[in-house]
Amino acid sequence: MIVADDSVLLREGVTRLLEEAGFEVIGQAGDREELMRKTRAHKPDIAIIDIRMPPTHTDEGLQAAREIRQQMPGTGVLVLSAYLEEEYALELLGDDAAGVGYLLKDRVSDGARFAEAVRRVAEGGSALDPEVVSQMLGRRRADDPLEELTPREREVLGLMAEGRSNRAIADALVISERAVEKHVTSIFAKLKLPPAAEDHRRVLAVLAFVGA
Amino acid sequence: MTNLRRAQIGLAVLAFVIGIGVLLVVINGEHNTHRGAYAALSLGIGWGFIGTGLYVWRRRPGNNIGPLMTAVGFSGFLKALAFSNSSVVFTIGSLGGVLIYAFLVHLLLSFPSGQLKGPLDRLLVVVTYVNTTVVQLAAFVFTDPAKAGCAHCPANPLLINHSKAAVVINAAQMDIAIALLGAVVAVLYRRWRGSTPSQGRAYAPVLAVGSLTFMLLMTELIVEQANLSSTLADGLTLALFGSIACLPFAFLVGLLRSRFGHAEAISSLVGRLGGGEGRGALRNALAEALGDPTLQLAYWVPDRDAYVDAEGRPRRVDPAPKGKIATTIDHDGRRIAAIVHDADLAGERDLVQAVGAAAALTLENERLDAELRAHIDELRASRARIVTAGYAERRRLERDLHDGAQQRLMALGINLRLARDRIERDPRQTAELLDASLQELSEATGELRELGRGIHPAVLSDRGLDAALKGLAGRAPVPVELVQTPDDRLPSSVESAVYFVVAEALTNVARYAQAQTAKVSVVRRNGQVEVQVSDDGVGGADPEQGSGLRGLSDRVSALDGRLDLTSVAGEGTIVRARIPCG
Question: φ and ψ at B33, to 5 degrees?
Answer without folding.
Answer: -85, -30
